[in-house]
Each structure stands twice: as structure tokens, then as C-alpha cells.
# Entry
Amino acid sequence: MTYFLVYLLLMNIITFIEMGHDKGQAKKGGRRVPEKRLFLLAALGGGIGGWLGMRVWRHKTKHTSFVIGIPLLVALNCLCVILIAIYM
# Structure
């Protein structure tokens, strides 16, 4: 269970950092992080990091797919954590 919690923590940190990096690139006009990658990171356990990144960096907050999708992935992440906790 400890490895699983470390994995979730790392995924959320990585997703948060990627959201910030993408925001910085958007401001500079640089190479962006693909939206697919941001959603994939959130789906793989980084939903809370993605949501926090949206709030802290004020990034992707006008994209309906992110405004709806990221909270849904947070809920899915929570459901998975609960199920894993129950069956471990």
C-alpha cells in the first residue's frame, strides 16, 4: 500500500508541474504540453494535481473538456483508491 501511495503522490506532483509548465509555455509562445498528455497523467492517478494546477496556474479553466473532465478524473481516481483500499 505504501508504494501505491507514493505512486499517487508522484503522479499528482508530475501532473501539477506539467500544468504549470504548459502555462509557462503558453505565455512564452513555446512548445506546449499536449492536452492528451495532461488528461493521461490525470487519468493515471494525477487528477488532484491536475485540478490544483488548473486552480493555482489558472490554466485550462475556459476549456470545457478540462472544467468537466478533470473533476471527473478526480472522482475516478478516488473511486479507484477506495476500491484498492477495500480489496488489499
Remarks:
- Residues 61 and 67 are 6 Å apart (CA to CA).
- The chain has a mean pLDDT of 95.
- DSSP finds three helices and no strands in the chain.
